[in-house]
Description:
The structure is a single chain. This protein is of the alpha+beta class. The chain folds into two domains: 64 residues; 194 residues, 3-Layer(aba) Sandwich (NADH Oxidase). Helix content is 40%, strand content 17%. It has ten helices and seven strands. The protein has a seven-stranded antiparallel β-sheet, with helices on both faces. Helix 1 packs antiparallel against helix 2 and helix 5 runs antiparallel to helix 9. The chain starts with a helix and ends with a strand. The site of flavin mononucleotide has 9 residues, from strand 6.
Amino acid sequence: MRSLLKSRRAPGTSTVRTGRAACIALILITVTVLVTGCADYGDAEQGMEPNMEKSTEEKMKQSTDARIALPEPEATGGMSIEEALSRRRSVRSYRDEPITLADVSQLLWAAQGRTSSDGFRTAPSAGALYPLEVYLVAGSVDLLSDGVYHYQVEGHALRKINDCDQRRNLSACALDQSQITDAAIDIVFTAVFERTTVKYGDRGVQYVYIEAGHAAQNVYLQAEAINLGVCAIGAFYEDEVSELLALPEDEVPVYILSVGKV
Length: 262
Ligand SMILES: Cc1cc2nc3c(=O)[nH]c(=O)nc-3n(C[C@H](O)[C@H](O)[C@H](O)COP(=O)(O)O)c2cc1C
């Protein structure tokens, strides 16, 4: 599936090949839906949609509209940074209640939101090369259906890539840590190391992990300010998470955060 997605993304691909790849993709989706009951949307930019009644062309068109706008994030709040810092703790048990789409918006903005017209973000980045990508594994969010979403920094939006609650499967990739299943959402940071190593060489690898730490701390503090609990999770199998999220081959999962109501 991943090599198929990759080949469909290659520039200059002919219409015939694109059509053939789309047919194969549709067959694969059908099999996925029949076997798991879940539709893997692949990359929405590549035209993968779950509604099998629609033509491929319709799917291609729909896919460009598949962005879900997030509420505008608040740039001011009620809790001081000192209070958030002094209260912050890793929280592993959560109330069985949904969080809001506004909460999701705030957390993703804290993670990697754009804060300037020049493209700078909430978290620092070596050379402003921004190697991190952010995925939302949603299982209990008001006004948002369960599934896996890719955060679109440009436009502060979500793009759905899978329409099943994957919290339990994600937990299985992480030694069955129960906070991942019990959380309302899990945030998965992935990295395209090449964006940074192309400039900084091997040193860039360290920079990417440092950046994941910056982004995760932003989420911890933001969560504290809106009364949510977070737990950082570094113990997981990269290849299993990559497969679950159907990541492109150049993207590696680096950090997971479980988030829920306290
Ligand atoms: C890189 C990193 C990886 C971590 N991985 C896990 C993990 O897999 N599971 C877990 O329950 N906690 C994990 N934690 C959370 C630590 O256990 C926690 O930060 C530590 O106990 C200190 O507690 P505090 O965060 O409440 O101050 C991780 C923390 C960091 C920084």
